[in-house]
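anyone seen this seq b4? input:
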Amino acid sequence: MGYLFWQENFSDFCFKSLSHKQKLLIFSLTATLFLITVGGSGEKWENFRLKNEVSPKNKGNYMFRGVTPISLDSKGRLAVPAKYREGLLSFCAGHLVVTADPSKCLLVYPQPAWEPIEQKLNSLSSFNPQSRSLQRLLVGNASDVEMDGAGRILVPPPLRQFAGLIKDVVLVGQGAKFELWDQEKWDLQIENALVFRDSGIPPELDGFSL
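predicted toks r here
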């Protein structure tokens, strides 16, 4: 207790005995050290915040758009377009799920986007023939794949056979997922989309304009 009293009074005495210029110098040095310390900590915090901030991609709102022609290699691998790779690595660490679609194409989901769909399908009654068929097609054919260091994924042989994928394919962004089509089948889909059949415009598109 006496030591602390002596230390505080000695420090106060030493400071009072300094000249005005010496006091200004000490104040300047102290302020500089404070700014360096706080500034450095602030920079570290900002880097940490930006690194760990939950972005729309990490919330599962990453949107895939665009049509990209791709060639499968001899092993049935496709290179994910570079514009999607960063988002997929950020959102799902490159873990994807590929499954069959009734339209005879393949669906490619980031794993977190697929899981609630799988849960919904599995919750359907297996006594309903249509529900059972969807479960067999979508859940039964679902395969986990992972992007390699070159950004490629291996499309399982049974799924390639199902969709008729040999070499020339098209990866189509569909919001939260991709569709993977044989090139010729995709061209046919586009031709059909350009002409509304006898059924006309779907009711839900009535009044809709681009």
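The first helix runs from residue 2 to 16. DSSP finds seven helices and eight strands in the chain. kinda curious what u guys think
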